[in-house]
Amino acid sequence: MSNIRTFEKPTGVRDLPPDITAKKRWVEARVEACFRRWGYREVVTPTLEYFETVGGASAIAEDKLFKLLDKQGQTLVLRPDHTAPIARVVASLLRDEPVPMRLHYHGNVFRAQDREAGRFAEFHQSGVELVGGASPEADAEIIALAVESLRELGITPIQVAVGHIDLLDALLLEQTGSSDSVAKLKESLGARNIVSYRENVKELNIPSTNREKLLQLLRFRGGYQVLSELEATTSCERALERINHLRAIWTALEDWGVAEYVIFDLSLVGSLDYYTGIYFEGYGAEGYYLLSGGRYDHLLERFDRDNPARGFALKTDRLIMASPGGLMEEERIALVYPEELRRAAFQRAHELRNQGKVVGLYKEEEMDSSAQDYDRVLHVGEGFDG
Protein backbone atom coordinates (compact mmCIF):
# COMPACT_ATOMS: atom_id res chain seq x y z
CA MET A 1 0.00 0.00 0.00
CA SER A 2 1.31 3.46 -0.90
CA ASN A 3 2.74 5.59 1.89
CA ILE A 4 2.24 8.82 -0.07
CA ARG A 5 0.08 11.27 1.84
CA THR A 6 -2.95 12.87 0.20
CA PHE A 7 -1.42 16.33 -0.25
CA GLU A 8 2.20 15.25 -0.80
CA LYS A 9 4.08 16.33 -3.94
CA PRO A 10 7.05 14.63 -5.61
CA THR A 11 10.49 15.72 -4.44
CA GLY A 12 11.61 19.07 -5.80
CA VAL A 13 8.31 20.36 -7.22
CA ARG A 14 5.96 22.97 -5.81
CA ASP A 15 2.68 24.77 -6.24
CA LEU A 16 2.60 28.49 -7.05
CA PRO A 17 -0.18 30.35 -5.21
CA PRO A 18 -2.03 33.19 -6.99
CA ASP A 19 0.22 36.02 -5.80
CA ILE A 20 3.42 34.26 -6.90
CA THR A 21 1.82 33.18 -10.17
CA ALA A 22 0.81 36.79 -10.89
CA LYS A 23 4.38 37.95 -10.21
CA LYS A 24 5.72 35.19 -12.48
CA ARG A 25 3.44 36.27 -15.33
CA TRP A 26 4.54 39.87 -14.84
CA VAL A 27 8.22 38.92 -14.98
CA GLU A 28 7.73 36.84 -18.12
CA ALA A 29 5.68 39.56 -19.84
CA ARG A 30 8.27 42.27 -19.16
CA VAL A 31 11.14 40.06 -20.26
CA GLU A 32 9.31 38.93 -23.39
CA ALA A 33 8.60 42.53 -24.38
CA CYS A 34 12.30 43.30 -23.97
CA PHE A 35 13.32 40.32 -26.10
CA ARG A 36 10.89 41.30 -28.86
CA ARG A 37 12.21 44.84 -28.98
CA TRP A 38 15.65 43.40 -29.62
CA GLY A 39 14.35 41.38 -32.59
CA TYR A 40 14.10 37.96 -30.92
CA ARG A 41 11.21 35.68 -31.97
CA GLU A 42 9.61 33.21 -29.61
CA VAL A 43 9.95 29.47 -30.15
CA VAL A 44 8.25 26.71 -28.14
CA THR A 45 9.70 23.22 -27.78
CA PRO A 46 8.01 20.12 -26.32
CA THR A 47 8.32 19.08 -22.70
CA LEU A 48 9.23 15.55 -23.84
CA GLU A 49 12.28 14.85 -26.00
CA TYR A 50 14.10 11.72 -27.13
CA PHE A 51 16.98 10.77 -24.88
CA GLU A 52 19.15 9.79 -27.86
CA THR A 53 18.92 13.24 -29.44
CA VAL A 54 18.24 16.13 -27.09
CA GLY A 55 18.97 14.14 -23.94
CA GLY A 56 22.37 13.18 -25.28
CA ALA A 57 23.13 16.65 -26.63
CA SER A 58 22.26 18.37 -23.37
CA ALA A 59 25.11 19.11 -21.00
CA ILE A 60 23.04 17.93 -18.04
CA ALA A 61 24.45 14.81 -16.36
CA GLU A 62 22.51 11.67 -17.20
CA ASP A 63 21.67 10.95 -13.57
CA LYS A 64 19.87 14.31 -13.45
CA LEU A 65 17.53 13.45 -16.33
CA PHE A 66 13.94 12.37 -15.80
CA LYS A 67 13.56 9.34 -18.09
CA LEU A 68 10.50 7.40 -19.18
CA LEU A 69 9.55 4.93 -21.90
CA ASP A 70 6.89 5.52 -24.53
CA LYS A 71 4.67 2.72 -25.85
CA GLN A 72 7.18 1.97 -28.61
CA GLY A 73 9.94 1.38 -26.08
CA GLN A 74 11.82 4.60 -26.90
CA THR A 75 13.50 6.39 -24.00
CA LEU A 76 12.19 9.91 -23.48
CA VAL A 77 13.36 12.67 -21.16
CA LEU A 78 11.61 15.63 -19.61
CA ARG A 79 13.24 18.73 -21.08
CA PRO A 80 16.43 19.31 -19.00
CA ASP A 81 17.32 22.64 -20.62
CA HIS A 82 16.19 24.84 -23.51
CA THR A 83 19.37 25.23 -25.54
CA ALA A 84 19.62 21.66 -26.85
CA PRO A 85 15.94 21.51 -27.98
CA ILE A 86 16.29 24.87 -29.72
CA ALA A 87 19.44 23.61 -31.44
CA ARG A 88 17.32 20.74 -32.76
CA VAL A 89 14.68 23.17 -34.04
CA VAL A 90 17.29 25.39 -35.70
CA ALA A 91 18.75 22.38 -37.50
CA SER A 92 15.35 21.06 -38.63
CA LEU A 93 12.33 23.37 -38.86
CA LEU A 94 14.51 26.47 -39.33
CA ARG A 95 17.28 24.89 -41.37
CA ASP A 96 16.61 27.13 -44.40
CA GLU A 97 16.51 30.38 -42.47
CA PRO A 98 19.50 32.69 -42.79
CA VAL A 99 21.73 33.64 -39.89
CA PRO A 100 22.02 35.48 -37.65
CA MET A 101 18.88 33.96 -36.15
CA ARG A 102 17.44 35.46 -32.97
CA LEU A 103 15.13 33.29 -30.86
CA HIS A 104 13.68 33.49 -27.37
CA TYR A 105 11.75 31.13 -25.09
CA HIS A 106 9.89 30.72 -21.81
CA GLY A 107 9.24 27.41 -20.10
CA ASN A 108 9.99 24.93 -17.37
CA VAL A 109 12.90 22.50 -17.22
CA PHE A 110 13.34 19.36 -15.14
CA ARG A 111 16.41 17.99 -13.38
CA ALA A 112 16.26 15.15 -10.88
CA GLN A 113 17.51 15.99 -7.40
CA ASP A 114 18.33 13.90 -4.36
CA ARG A 115 15.74 14.25 -1.61
CA GLU A 116 18.33 15.63 0.79
CA ALA A 117 19.66 18.16 -1.73
CA GLY A 118 16.84 20.62 -1.05
CA ARG A 119 16.85 21.87 -4.66
CA PHE A 120 14.02 22.25 -7.13
CA ALA A 121 13.54 19.50 -9.70
CA GLU A 122 11.29 21.74 -11.82
CA PHE A 123 12.07 25.38 -12.42
CA HIS A 124 11.24 28.09 -14.92
CA GLN A 125 13.48 29.92 -17.35
CA SER A 126 13.26 32.68 -19.94
CA GLY A 127 16.09 33.16 -22.36
CA VAL A 128 17.46 33.83 -25.82
CA GLU A 129 19.69 32.19 -28.40
CA LEU A 130 21.60 34.12 -31.08
CA VAL A 131 22.62 31.66 -33.79
CA GLY A 132 25.33 32.48 -36.32
CA GLY A 133 28.25 34.86 -36.43
CA ALA A 134 31.56 34.64 -34.61
CA SER A 135 32.12 38.36 -34.08
CA PRO A 136 32.78 40.10 -30.78
CA GLU A 137 29.72 42.25 -31.53
CA ALA A 138 27.45 39.18 -31.47
CA ASP A 139 28.91 38.06 -28.14
CA ALA A 140 28.53 41.59 -26.78
CA GLU A 141 24.90 41.77 -27.93
CA ILE A 142 23.92 38.79 -25.83
CA ILE A 143 25.64 40.24 -22.74
CA ALA A 144 24.04 43.64 -23.33
CA LEU A 145 20.60 42.03 -23.67
CA ALA A 146 21.16 40.15 -20.41
CA VAL A 147 21.84 43.46 -18.66
CA GLU A 148 18.85 45.10 -20.32
CA SER A 149 16.57 42.24 -19.24
CA LEU A 150 17.48 42.81 -15.59
CA ARG A 151 17.07 46.56 -15.98
CA GLU A 152 13.63 45.98 -17.50
CA LEU A 153 12.60 44.32 -14.23
CA GLY A 154 13.90 47.19 -12.11
CA ILE A 155 16.63 45.09 -10.54
CA THR A 156 19.45 47.02 -8.92
CA PRO A 157 22.35 46.73 -8.49
CA ILE A 158 23.31 44.62 -11.51
CA GLN A 159 26.62 42.93 -12.16
CA VAL A 160 27.52 40.56 -14.98
CA ALA A 161 30.77 38.60 -14.62
CA VAL A 162 32.31 37.44 -17.90
CA GLY A 163 34.88 34.69 -18.38
CA HIS A 164 36.10 32.78 -21.41
CA ILE A 165 36.25 28.98 -21.41
CA ASP A 166 38.75 28.56 -24.25
CA LEU A 167 40.99 31.27 -22.81
CA LEU A 168 41.00 29.52 -19.45
CA ASP A 169 41.74 26.18 -21.12
CA ALA A 170 44.69 27.71 -22.97
CA LEU A 171 46.12 29.33 -19.84
CA LEU A 172 45.78 26.19 -17.73
CA LEU A 173 47.30 24.01 -20.44
CA GLU A 174 50.19 26.44 -20.91
CA GLN A 175 51.18 26.06 -17.26
CA THR A 176 50.38 22.37 -16.68
CA GLY A 177 51.07 20.76 -20.06
CA SER A 178 48.39 18.18 -19.27
CA SER A 179 44.76 18.02 -20.41
CA ASP A 180 43.98 15.82 -17.39
CA SER A 181 45.32 18.51 -15.07
CA VAL A 182 43.28 21.13 -16.91
CA ALA A 183 40.10 19.09 -16.38
CA LYS A 184 40.85 18.59 -12.69
CA LEU A 185 41.54 22.28 -12.08
CA LYS A 186 38.42 23.34 -13.99
CA GLU A 187 36.34 20.96 -11.91
CA SER A 188 37.46 22.76 -8.76
CA LEU A 189 36.79 26.17 -10.31
CA GLY A 190 33.37 25.06 -11.54
CA ALA A 191 32.47 23.95 -8.02
CA ARG A 192 33.66 27.34 -6.69
CA ASN A 193 36.02 25.38 -4.45
CA ILE A 194 39.06 27.61 -4.24
CA VAL A 195 40.63 25.51 -1.48
CA SER A 196 40.48 22.44 -3.71
CA TYR A 197 41.93 24.43 -6.63
CA ARG A 198 44.89 25.61 -4.56
CA GLU A 199 45.53 22.10 -3.26
CA ASN A 200 45.42 20.66 -6.78
CA VAL A 201 47.87 23.30 -7.98
CA LYS A 202 50.29 22.47 -5.16
CA GLU A 203 50.19 18.78 -6.07
CA LEU A 204 51.22 19.40 -9.69
CA ASN A 205 54.74 18.39 -10.70
CA ILE A 206 55.54 21.67 -12.44
CA PRO A 207 58.01 24.54 -11.90
CA SER A 208 57.18 26.96 -9.10
CA THR A 209 56.79 29.84 -11.57
CA ASN A 210 54.07 27.89 -13.39
CA ARG A 211 52.40 27.10 -10.09
CA GLU A 212 52.40 30.78 -9.14
CA LYS A 213 50.78 31.75 -12.46
CA LEU A 214 48.02 29.21 -11.87
CA LEU A 215 47.33 30.77 -8.48
CA GLN A 216 47.42 34.25 -10.04
CA LEU A 217 44.46 33.31 -12.24
CA LEU A 218 42.19 33.65 -9.22
CA ARG A 219 43.05 37.33 -8.97
CA PHE A 220 42.18 38.40 -12.52
CA ARG A 221 38.80 39.94 -11.78
CA GLY A 222 37.82 43.47 -12.69
CA GLY A 223 37.38 45.86 -15.60
CA TYR A 224 39.15 46.38 -18.90
CA GLN A 225 42.59 46.77 -17.29
CA VAL A 226 42.50 43.13 -16.11
CA LEU A 227 43.04 42.01 -19.70
CA SER A 228 46.39 43.81 -19.94
CA GLU A 229 47.44 42.38 -16.59
CA LEU A 230 46.61 38.88 -17.79
CA GLU A 231 48.29 39.45 -21.15
CA ALA A 232 51.58 40.14 -19.36
CA THR A 233 51.55 36.64 -17.84
CA THR A 234 51.26 34.56 -21.03
CA SER A 235 53.00 33.99 -24.33
CA CYS A 236 50.40 31.51 -25.60
CA GLU A 237 49.16 32.69 -29.00
CA ARG A 238 45.77 31.08 -28.50
CA ALA A 239 45.33 32.85 -25.17
CA LEU A 240 46.44 36.19 -26.63
CA GLU A 241 43.86 35.87 -29.42
CA ARG A 242 41.10 35.25 -26.88
CA ILE A 243 42.24 38.23 -24.80
CA ASN A 244 41.95 40.47 -27.86
CA HIS A 245 38.47 39.05 -28.49
CA LEU A 246 37.47 40.06 -24.96
CA ARG A 247 38.89 43.54 -25.58
CA ALA A 248 36.67 43.88 -28.64
CA ILE A 249 33.67 42.69 -26.62
CA TRP A 250 34.38 45.32 -23.97
CA THR A 251 34.52 48.18 -26.48
CA ALA A 252 31.23 46.96 -27.99
CA LEU A 253 29.70 46.89 -24.50
CA GLU A 254 30.87 50.48 -24.02
CA ASP A 255 29.06 51.40 -27.23
CA TRP A 256 25.95 49.60 -25.94
CA GLY A 257 26.23 51.72 -22.79
CA VAL A 258 26.34 48.75 -20.42
CA ALA A 259 30.06 48.32 -19.68
CA GLU A 260 29.52 49.80 -16.20
CA TYR A 261 27.57 46.65 -15.27
CA VAL A 262 30.23 44.21 -16.49
CA ILE A 263 33.42 42.83 -14.99
CA PHE A 264 35.79 40.14 -16.19
CA ASP A 265 36.28 37.06 -14.02
CA LEU A 266 38.83 34.98 -15.88
CA SER A 267 38.58 31.96 -13.59
CA LEU A 268 34.81 31.68 -14.13
CA VAL A 269 33.58 28.22 -15.20
CA GLY A 270 29.98 27.18 -15.81
CA SER A 271 28.23 23.94 -14.96
CA LEU A 272 27.32 23.14 -18.59
CA ASP A 273 30.19 21.75 -20.62
CA TYR A 274 29.03 22.77 -24.11
CA TYR A 275 30.27 26.34 -23.61
CA THR A 276 33.41 26.98 -25.64
CA GLY A 277 33.85 30.77 -25.67
CA ILE A 278 32.54 33.46 -23.38
CA TYR A 279 30.71 32.36 -20.26
CA PHE A 280 28.91 34.84 -18.02
CA GLU A 281 26.72 35.04 -14.94
CA GLY A 282 24.45 37.85 -13.76
CA TYR A 283 23.80 38.88 -10.17
CA GLY A 284 21.56 41.23 -8.25
CA ALA A 285 21.94 42.63 -4.74
CA GLU A 286 24.41 40.82 -2.48
CA GLY A 287 25.53 38.57 -5.33
CA TYR A 288 22.09 36.96 -5.81
CA TYR A 289 22.45 34.67 -8.84
CA LEU A 290 19.94 35.55 -11.60
CA LEU A 291 21.19 34.35 -15.00
CA SER A 292 23.91 32.51 -16.88
CA GLY A 293 24.89 32.11 -20.49
CA GLY A 294 27.68 31.89 -22.98
CA ARG A 295 28.86 30.85 -26.39
CA TYR A 296 28.73 27.32 -27.73
CA ASP A 297 30.35 26.63 -31.10
CA HIS A 298 29.84 22.86 -31.44
CA LEU A 299 26.39 22.01 -30.06
CA LEU A 300 24.65 22.52 -33.40
CA GLU A 301 27.06 20.05 -34.99
CA ARG A 302 25.22 17.35 -33.02
CA PHE A 303 22.25 18.12 -35.27
CA ASP A 304 24.25 18.42 -38.51
CA ARG A 305 24.36 22.20 -38.59
CA ASP A 306 27.63 24.08 -38.28
CA ASN A 307 27.00 27.47 -36.68
CA PRO A 308 28.45 29.16 -33.63
CA ALA A 309 25.80 30.42 -31.22
CA ARG A 310 25.41 32.04 -27.86
CA GLY A 311 22.59 32.65 -25.42
CA PHE A 312 21.55 33.01 -21.81
CA ALA A 313 18.84 31.80 -19.45
CA LEU A 314 17.16 33.95 -16.83
CA LYS A 315 16.26 32.12 -13.64
CA THR A 316 12.59 33.12 -13.49
CA ASP A 317 12.01 31.75 -10.00
CA ARG A 318 14.83 33.91 -8.67
CA LEU A 319 13.68 36.96 -10.61
CA ILE A 320 10.29 36.68 -8.90
CA MET A 321 12.08 37.19 -5.59
CA ALA A 322 14.55 39.84 -6.79
CA SER A 323 12.42 42.19 -8.89
CA PRO A 324 10.60 44.99 -7.04
CA GLY A 325 7.62 45.19 -9.43
CA GLY A 326 4.86 42.82 -10.35
CA LEU A 327 2.23 43.72 -7.79
CA MET A 328 -1.34 44.07 -9.01
CA GLU A 329 -1.59 47.48 -10.70
CA GLU A 330 -5.28 47.23 -11.68
CA GLU A 331 -7.83 48.54 -9.21
CA ARG A 332 -9.57 45.62 -7.53
CA ILE A 333 -13.24 46.09 -6.66
CA ALA A 334 -15.56 43.84 -4.67
CA LEU A 335 -19.13 44.31 -5.92
CA VAL A 336 -21.73 43.26 -3.34
CA TYR A 337 -25.37 42.90 -4.38
CA PRO A 338 -28.75 41.62 -3.14
CA GLU A 339 -30.44 38.88 -5.14
CA GLU A 340 -33.09 41.22 -6.59
CA LEU A 341 -30.39 43.47 -8.16
CA ARG A 342 -28.33 40.70 -9.70
CA ARG A 343 -28.87 41.89 -13.30
CA ALA A 344 -27.75 45.43 -12.45
CA ALA A 345 -24.73 44.08 -10.59
CA PHE A 346 -23.69 41.86 -13.49
CA GLN A 347 -24.05 44.77 -15.92
CA ARG A 348 -21.98 47.06 -13.70
CA ALA A 349 -19.30 44.40 -13.27
CA HIS A 350 -19.08 44.09 -17.05
CA GLU A 351 -18.65 47.86 -17.43
CA LEU A 352 -15.94 48.03 -14.78
CA ARG A 353 -14.03 45.13 -16.29
CA ASN A 354 -14.11 46.85 -19.67
CA GLN A 355 -12.39 49.77 -17.92
CA GLY A 356 -9.55 47.44 -16.93
CA LYS A 357 -10.59 46.95 -13.33
CA VAL A 358 -10.60 43.64 -11.48
CA VAL A 359 -14.10 42.87 -10.18
CA GLY A 360 -15.22 40.15 -7.80
CA LEU A 361 -18.96 39.58 -7.29
CA TYR A 362 -20.48 38.70 -3.91
CA LYS A 363 -24.06 38.18 -2.82
CA GLU A 364 -24.80 40.09 0.37
CA GLU A 365 -25.32 36.89 2.34
CA GLU A 366 -22.05 35.44 0.99
CA MET A 367 -19.83 38.40 1.83
CA ASP A 368 -16.79 37.22 3.76
CA SER A 369 -13.26 38.27 4.70
CA SER A 370 -11.95 37.63 1.17
CA ALA A 371 -13.25 41.09 0.23
CA GLN A 372 -10.32 42.48 2.20
CA ASP A 373 -8.13 41.57 -0.78
CA TYR A 374 -9.84 44.30 -2.83
CA ASP A 375 -9.08 48.01 -3.01
CA ARG A 376 -12.74 49.04 -2.78
CA VAL A 377 -16.06 47.48 -1.82
CA LEU A 378 -19.13 48.74 -3.72
CA HIS A 379 -22.66 47.85 -2.62
CA VAL A 380 -25.41 47.57 -5.20
CA GLY A 381 -28.59 48.97 -3.65
CA GLU A 382 -31.11 51.74 -3.72
CA GLY A 383 -29.95 54.58 -5.92
CA PHE A 384 -27.15 52.47 -7.44
CA ASP A 385 -26.28 53.77 -10.90
CA GLY A 386 -25.30 50.32 -12.27
From TrEMBL:
- What are the record's GO terms for cellular component? cytoplasm
The UniProt record gives the binding positions of L-histidine as D81, H82, T83, R111, Q125, E129, Y274, Y275
- Mention one GO biological process in which this protein takes part, according to its record: histidyl-tRNA aminoacylation
Pathway field of the UniProt record reads: Amino-acid biosynthesis; L-histidine biosynthesis; L-histidine from 5-phospho-alpha-D-ribose 1-diphosphate: step 1/9
State the SUPFAM superfamilies in the record.
Class II aaRS and biotin synthetases
CDD domains, per the entry: HisRS-like_core
Sorted keywords for this record are: Amino-acid biosynthesis, Cytoplasm, Glycosyltransferase, Histidine biosynthesis, Transferase
- Chief subcellular location equals cytoplasm
Q: Look up the domain of life of the source.
A: Bacteria
Location of this chain's protein in the cell: Cytoplasm
Tell me the ranges covered by the Aminoacyl-transfer RNA synthetases class-II family profile domain, including all copies: 35-322
Under InterPro entries, the record lists: aa-tRNA-synth_II, aa-tRNA-synth_II/BPL/LPL, HisRS-like_core, HisRS/HisZ, HisZ
Key word Membrane present: no
Q: What else is known?
A: This function is generally fulfilled by the C-terminal part of HisG, which is missing in some bacteria such as this one.
Q: Could you describe the subunit structure of this protein?
A: Heteromultimer composed of HisG and HisZ subunits.
Checking NCBIfam families in the record gives: hisZ_biosyn_reg, PRK12292.2-4
Main role? Required for the first step of histidine biosynthesis. May allow the feedback regulation of ATP phosphoribosyltransferase activity by histidine.
Q: Indicate the family of this protein.
A: Belongs to the class-II aminoacyl-tRNA synthetase family. HisZ subfamily.
Can you name this protein? ATP phosphoribosyltransferase regulatory subunit
Q: What is the lineage of its organism?
A: Bacteria, Bacillati, Bacillota, Bacilli, Bacillales
